[in-house]
Specification:
The protein has 472 residues and is mainly α. The protein has 3 domains: 129 residues, Rossmann fold (3-Layer(aba) Sandwich); 118 residues, Serine Threonine Protein Phosphatase 5, Tetratricopeptide repeat (Alpha Horseshoe), CATH 1.25.40; 166 residues, DNA Cyclobutane Dipyrimidine Photolyase, subunit A, domain 3. Helix content is 47%, strand content 5%. The chain has 19 helices and 5 strands. Strands 3-2-1-4-5 form a 5-stranded parallel β-sheet, sandwiched between helices. The longest helix is centred in the middle third of the chain and has 26 residues. The model has no long low-confidence stretch (mean pLDDT 96). Bound molecules: flavin-adenine dinucleotide. The site of flavin-adenine dinucleotide has 28 residues, from helix 8, helix 10, helix 13 and helix 15.
């Protein structure tokens, strides 16, 4: 009897799953599919993930296992090096083909190269289709066939390409009995615990989030997406990260509703889709330039010094803890600690604060975000950090340093976001949240005075960048 393996990686769904659908089709009606997830053997030493994301992963796997059972299958869990475990599974089951959706990040690509070698050596068919992106790698190039480094022309080409429709849910899948499986992973397997309030994991919950967004907030996304105290964005980032929903499903749902909206609503829906394009813009950049994870995209800023804030050795720790004395920065860092998610505008503000006010290396913040975010996505996170530091592709120029106080006035004018996340400031008047205290004293008991003066540190940033630019 023909047996094929589907290796789940970051695609924890049975609807519109490219490789899984191909595996089921290849297996045929009487044949068997072995759906497997291999828990990585990094044993907790990885500095780029943390309890909130691991807990979400565990929840996604539990939900996937149930969904597979409901259609007659069984999720097999193995632990260790993915290629070695897949090789063992082939030997145990006699599977002749391996299906997996390819991973857009450089770490996934390395594993795929090794898997390819193993498959060839064993005479196995290996199918690694595109799934995590609508367009990736070399699909959206300049007229000269080169890689876009600037977003707007990239997005024009992206929108001009034909779009695949989402595929249906798998209805039936049978997994051979007798294939051994470890229990579903638990957070404690990594010696971790978490008190972060994460979103509900699983394909059904992700579809529900999309439904809610499409039914209402998408129509005013353009107007509300930057207001940190308003629930104006989709909250789909962790779902895209873990493949609980596909970008094709999101695109189709947004395009479908767009056609029925009045002009402002249509603009909003397109603005939303442009954010989906930013995700793919950063993914294709990282695919072409994996060195982005180590160095500045813009060669002008390579080797920059990040000297830190003079006389404040614990500046990074204060930033992490949300105790800088800048309410908007601290609210954002506390939202991250409490929920594993941070509003996009707040990500920009906190990243600029770390790099331009505290003069700390963007890589420190990038790693901290990767450990803390449920949606931690290597390409978007690196892109966002390099954008904010002024070192990235299509980045904010170094001399455009956001002022946290003006950002508060524009994007949290009522202090709603600040009061939600900083209990010490719940009874403080609006005026005290929008400007630095004139006497430099704390504005509430237990909450620190601002740890620096923004305009002085802005000048220092301009000086540091200008001196680096003209260095011999
Ligand atoms: C410093 C920094 C770090 C970031 N780190 C991550 C990360 O690790 N993972 C991550 O998914 N996003 C990251 N972003 C992008 C963005 O902040 C989040 O995708 C967004 O806040 C998620 O909320 P949402 O799903 O409600 O977004 P929406 O506004 O509803 O957008 C829809 C989707 O578009 C994508 N998207 C939106 N904005 C961006 C963007 N600027 N860049 C790339 N994709 C985007 C996301 O997949 C998002 O789910 C980062 C941004 C910055 C400035």
């Amino acid at each position: 009897m023909k047996r094929v393996i589907h290796w789940f990686r970051r695609d924890f769904r049975i609807t519109d799953n490219t490789a899984l659908a191909a595996a089921v089709a290849a297996a045929g009606p009487d044949c068997e599919v072995i759906p497997v997830y291999v828990v990585s053997d990094w044993k907790g030493s990885h500095e780029w993930t943390g309890p909130a994301r691991q807990e979400f992963l565990c929840g996604c796997l539990a939900s996937l296992a149930k969904n597979l059972e409901a259609i007659g299958g069984r999720l097999i869990i193995r632990r260790g090096d993915a290629v070695k475990e897949l090789e063992k599974l082939v030997a145990e089951t006699g599977a002749t083909e391996i299906f997996a959706n390819r991973d857009p990040d450089p770490f996934g690509r390395l594993v795929e190269d090794r898997l390819d070698i193993m498959a060839k050596a064993r005479g196995l068919e290996l199918f690694l289709p595109k799934d995590a992106c609508i367009h990736e790698r070399d699909e959206a190039l300049t007229g000269q066939g080169t890689v876009f480094r600037v977003f707007t022309p990239y997005s024009k080409v992206w929108f001009g390409l034909p779009k695949p429709s989402p595929g249906p849910a798998i209805k039936k899948l049978s997994t051979p009995s007798g294939v051994s499986s470890l229990p579903l992973p638990q957070l404690t397997d990594w010696g971790m615990s978490s008190s972060v309030s994460i979103p509900e994991p699983g394909e059904r919950a992700a579809r529900e989030r999309l439904k809610v967004f499409i039914a209402g907030p998408i129509a005013s996304y353009g107007e509300k997406r930057d207001l940190m105290g308003v629930n104006g964005t989709s909250h789909l980032s962790q779902d895209l990260r873990f493949g609980l929903i596909s970008p094709r499903q999101i695109y189709a749902a947004a395009k479908n509703v767009e056609e029925s909206l009045p002009p402002e609503g249509r603009k909003s829906a397109m603005k939303f889709l442009a954010e989906i394009v930013w995700r793919e813009f950063y993914m294709q950049l990282l695919w072409h330039y994996p060195e982005l994870l180590k160095q500045e995209f813009n060669p002008t800023w390579r080797g920059m010094e990040w000297p830190g804030l003079p006389g404040v050795p614990d500046a990074f720790e204060r930033w992490c803890a949300g105790m800088t004395g800048f309410p908007i920065v601290d609210a954002a860092m506390r939202q991250l600690a409490a929920t594993g998610w941070m509003h996009n505008r707040a990500r920009m503000i906190t990243a600029m604060f770390l790099t331009k006010d505290l003069h700390l290396d963007w890589r420190l913040g990038e790693a901290f975000f990767m450990r803390s975010l449920v949606d931690g996505e290597i390409a978007s996170n690196n892109g966002g950090w390099q954008w904010s530091a002024g070192t990235g592709a299509d980045a904010a120029p170094y001399f455009r340093v956001q002022n946290p106080w003006s950002q508060t006035k524009r994007f949290d004018p009522e202090g709603t976001y600040i009061r939600t996340w900083i209990p010490e400031l719940r009874n403080v008047s609006n005026g005290s949240l929008l400007d630095p205290p004139s006497d430099g004293c704390p504005i509430a008991p237990g909450y620190p005075a601002p740890m620096l003066e923004h305009s002085a540190e802005r000048d220092r940033t301009l000086d540091l960048f200008a001196r680096h630019k003209v260095r011999p």
